[in-house]
Please model this.
Amino acid sequence: MPAPSDHSITLTVNGTAETLTLPDPRVSLLDALRQRLKLTGTKKGCDHGQCGACTVIVNGRRINSCLSLAVMHDGDQITTIEGLGAPGALAPMQAAFLHHDGFQCGYCTPGQIMSATAMLDEARAGWPSVVSGDLTAPSLSDDEIRERMSGNLCRCAAYPNIVAAIREVADTAPEDAA
Ligand code: FES
Ligand code: FES
Model:
């Protein structure tokens, strides 16, 4: 029986092209980021799509990186929490989470921030949620924020402060937040 061949892929992660040779095509994107690229800001909570701790943005859309195989992302643009901002130059969502204490232990926080960042882009593009009453409403209700963030769990239950942080960014025009 022939030995399985290595799988070579190139991901653009936080603006840098990274070529990886994976001995096994079953490596998840989450494990490739954490174990191969040492980008450990993306967290592994459940490892089966239930908690959102592993959320990253791929080609502009948020995904659970634990549910996606790295080999499916050859050529893709991936943003992790390390690429969203930097110490001294935080992204608006990162700054808002600090301002509102949107965490306790912090384990879910990278996923919350990545998900919230992409979620606001979805809302601004007019994507509905199951609680959307009026897509032309000038701002997201707290119910909208909670529904759209329902894939990101927080075991510390910091939800009120998480919603407050997201609200701060949601109520800021994108050009003002940049
Ligand atoms: S670790 Fe991916 S959803 Fe929980
Ligand atoms: S801050 Fe602890 S799990 Fe969310």
